[in-house]
Amino acid sequence: MGVTEVFATDTLGQGALTGITVLDLGQAFMGPYCALLLQRLGADVIKVEPLKGEPYRRPTVRKGTEMMQFGLLNAGKRSVSLDLKNPEGRELFLRLAATADVVIQNFAPGTFDRLIGVDAVLDANPRLILASGSGYGSTGPYRSLRAMDLTVQAMSGVMATTGFPDGIPVRTGPSVVDFMGGAHLTAAVLAALVQRSVTGKGQHVEVALYDAILPSLASNIGGYLDNDGAIPERTGNRHGGLEVSPYNSYKTQDGWAAILCLHDRHWASLCRAMERPELIEDPAFKTGRARAASIDRVDAVVEAWTSTRTTDDVIMVLSDAGIACAPVKSLREVITDPQVAERGMLRYHSREDRDWWTLGSPLRLSDSPAPEESEVPRLGEHTAEVLAERLLLERSELEALDACGVTGTGTEVKDGYHGRSSLALVDTADS
Amino acid sequence: MGVTEVFATDTLGQGALTGITVLDLGQAFMGPYCALLLQRLGADVIKVEPLKGEPYRRPTVRKGTEMMQFGLLNAGKRSVSLDLKNPEGRELFLRLAATADVVIQNFAPGTFDRLIGVDAVLDANPRLILASGSGYGSTGPYRSLRAMDLTVQAMSGVMATTGFPDGIPVRTGPSVVDFMGGAHLTAAVLAALVQRSVTGKGQHVEVALYDAILPSLASNIGGYLDNDGAIPERTGNRHGGLEVSPYNSYKTQDGWAAILCLHDRHWASLCRAMERPELIEDPAFKTGRARAASIDRVDAVVEAWTSTRTTDDVIMVLSDAGIACAPVKSLREVITDPQVAERGMLRYHSREDRDWWTLGSPLRLSDSPAPEESEVPRLGEHTAEVLAERLLLERSELEALDACGVTGTGTEVKDGYHGRSSLALVDTADS
Questions:
Q1: What ipTM is given for this predicted complex?
Q2: Distance between terminal CA atoms of chain A?
């Protein structure tokens, strides 16, 4: 069994979480991403949505079509539509929770307690793991603050450290805070499942976005402390602590190449690749400390070389020389990247009037096969199926619940995500 | 049991991973962060380092002191120093692996197979979980490429989507790729532990940095697809899909405030807070779609208000109005932030001639107490202790291994991390 064979897609067997049921009350990214990762590990994930659908089931502002990102985060789950504000809806949720292993929620502070309650759900099922995602956690002075990816980027130093010394603080393009939160929340759920395998008991786990992003600032915080605050907070595309050089994006004839040399031997290889062998022994560049002190000159030397070549040429030459480098790819190039396709991280699907994209999982387990291709659930598509299967409700009961507005069964519901063609009906961007 | 009481620091009981042993071969961030999270869950984490120490045990370029970030990533672990290139050292490692539950490695492609081998380590212990972190994974066309946080940011679209439409691609200040990788690798290890609790068997799990960062681009990829590529890749501090407005950082008298309004009701609250109630019914601003179409005007209106006030004043008024907002904090403000302190995410320690900082864990489990305050292990500090405890080696054997250069016991070793005072001896920045 070699490394290259272990993760082949034809691996047989059960998933790591086969038999585990997850109720996903998540919204937007943090909760839904956690539930997505659990689904890809083999869990049965039931997305429990309000009658109007999760807020991210909304049409795009410009074209009014369904948002692709909803599908990216939710394909492979089942959708149950339930009004938690209705006492009967809440009761149904608690009965579902009694049959489940995990409940995930990332409502605004106070909302879950108002709708359901931590005690109520854990009393309903002592083996249950309740996973709460929030902006700042349930303790500390910020615990009541509303938070989104942007505001936590502002609060946590992500923005302060992103951008150029002479420019303004910059948010990251990707939603790194939300997804860092979701990945950590997944780890917390799984740790509680490990603990349950010993104790037989569930528990409440929580992850705060603010806590989850802080460790990623280790080199910024470390650099600040090591230099007594005497280096800029933002260093552009240079190393955060200005400790490594070369380390930057360098202009090429047709774009940019990211290049760094951690060790002197890499620098020597780079000098040879640039056909500047005389620089290897130059005291201004010979050691890491010398290059850090001559950072402007190093960058000028490297860019003088890259700017006469195409990005592909630079990458080919430097990869062959064993130097860490990469093209700065456009979003279009990433979406069509052969590595992304090979790893199944992004897949296009279409059938009849719908088309959608799905995400793969970064979690690769040699003995836990990835689930098969998955669809994006329509709102309430599985309400009847799940309530019949788990609570043994009969057709007449299901119809009565629907008629009273306690549940939504997809076929009845006019709002929300119904596939591309029907979304023009909906204007919920600001509901 | 209410939400605010669950996570008190005096929670009693065993950790979720009490009794689990982890061998951490990790370097820099991805592997060491994974091991750190497992340590904070109660695992016994043994950091296995070469005789010269992990590459991040190196002095800072400017001052020559130990790097704070090494302590941030490794406090609470034990350090065993072992030469894996020596056949006896490799044999000792395999014997240790036979007593362990998890091995973590994030060497460059091919290195682990050359030093140890996937088969060898899993043969030595069929219950072992081997966790491999890498840049691009063990499959696909990029599988052999060297990767660092910077180069994966370039390759994955993180840089393409960060920055301003009229500016160049920007790397994020924090090492979001490395830590996203580490958080996912932790989830993969825990999923395999869950699976082992059913099957009794270990397995090989892997996480690629490139896979781990891709989901965080969901809204950029979705926005690109939804708009047929007709919006800029980089939108500065505005919403990535230009779907939400206001959504930006706005200049104040003394800094910046991040503000966003997802719904019309938030916009209405903002108009009242700005004492501009007439804007609520203005057709140019009334709906989300209208505001997205008038994004420049919306931003001008909001900044006209924020720029006459201090950041604190803006945040106080808008928080009271229930609007998601945050100050753009400097790194110094983050390090001294009361919420960071209250959550224990960053702690300062000093004793005798050493001082160090430690990270808390974003994973909060109500029934799994956080470990006590922890120290940064000196290189090889626990070599003798661990080998005596796990392999029952005797003093004479330990001395012979040290004498032959198979192991390092800390007191003998002259290189690497020995606390601040001794580091001036070392010049390993480019070893």
A1: 0.93
A2: 54
Per CB-CB distance under 8 Å, the chain B contacts of A154 are 249, 256-258, 326-329
Is A158–B173 a contact, with Cβ atoms under 8 angstroms apart? yes
Domain boundaries, chain A: 3-215+344-425, 236-332
A219 CB-near residues (< 8 Å, 6+ apart): A240, A241, B69, B174, B175
Residue pLDDT tens, chain B, 431 long: 333 344 434 334 689 999 999 999 999 999 999 999 999 999 999 999 999 999 889 888 777 777 899 999 999 999 999 999 999 999 999 999 999 999 999 999 999 999 999 999 999 999 999 999 999 999 999 999 999 999 999 999 999 999 999 999 999 999 999 999 999 999 999 999 999 999 999 999 999 999 999 999 999 999 899 888 888 999 999 998 888 999 999 999 999 999 999 999 999 999 999 999 999 999 999 999 899 999 999 999 999 999 999 999 999 999 999 999 999 999 999 999 999 999 999 999 988 878 899 999 999 999 998 887 789 999 999 999 999 999 999 999 999 999 999 999 875 433 433 333 222 222 333 32
CA B128, CA A75: separation in Å to the nearest integer?
32
Is residue A241 within 8 A of residue A223, CB to CB? The reply is yes
Long-range contacts of B118-125 (CB under 8 A, 24+ apart): B118/A1, B118/A2, B118/A3, B118/A6, B118/B204, B119/A1, B119/A2, B120/B94, B121/B94, B121/B97, B122/A1, B122/B202, B122/B203, B122/B204, B124/B94, B124/B95, B124/B97, B124/B98, B125/B97, B125/B98, B125/B99, B125/B100, B125/B202
DSSP 8-state code for residue B233: S
Residue numbers in A near B211 (CB within 8 A):
343, 345, 360-362, 364
Q: Which helix (H) or strand (E) holds A339?
A: helix A338-342
What CATH number does the domain located at B237-330 have? Answer: 3.30.1540.10
Which of B2, B191, B226 lies nearest to residue A17, judging by beta carbons? B191
Question: Which chain B residues are closer than 8 Å to A225 by Cβ?
Answer: 68, 335, 357
What single letter denotes the amino acid at residue B208? A
Q: Note the pLDDT tens digit of each residue in A24-33.
A: 999 999 999 9
What are φ and ψ of residue A122, in 5° steps?
-75, -30
Annotation says B166 is catalytic = no
**Helix locations, B55-103, DSSP H:** 68-74, 87-98
Q: Which residue has the tokens 């007709």?
A: B230
Distance to chain B for A281, nearest Cα, Å: 14
B294 Cα to chain A: minimum distance (Å): 12
Which residue out of A41, A61, A237, A316 would a mutagenesis test of the B interface target, given it has the greatest number of B Cβ atoms within 10 Å?
A: A61
Q: What are A373's two structure tokens? A: 């291709």
CB pairs under 8 A between A and B: 588
- Which chain A residues touch B175 with a CB distance below 8 Å? 216, 218-219, 240
Domains A3-215+344-425 and A236-332 share a fold: no
Q: Tell me: domain A3-215+344-425, CATH 3.40.50.920, correct?
A: no
Q: Determine, for residues A221 and B160 on separate chains, whether the beta-carbon distance falls below 8 Å.
A: no
Q: Mark A80-95 as b/e (b = at least 16 C-beta within 10 Å).
A: bbbbbebeebbebbbb
Contact A147 B188 (CB under 8 A): no
Q: Which CATH class is domain A236-332?
A: alpha beta
Q: Do B179 and A216 touch (CB under 8 A)?
A: yes
3-state secondary structure B96-148: HHHCCCEEEECCCCCHHHHHCCHHHHHHHCCCCEEEEEECCCCCCCCCCCCCC
Cα–Cα distance, B52 to B417 (Å, whole number): 9
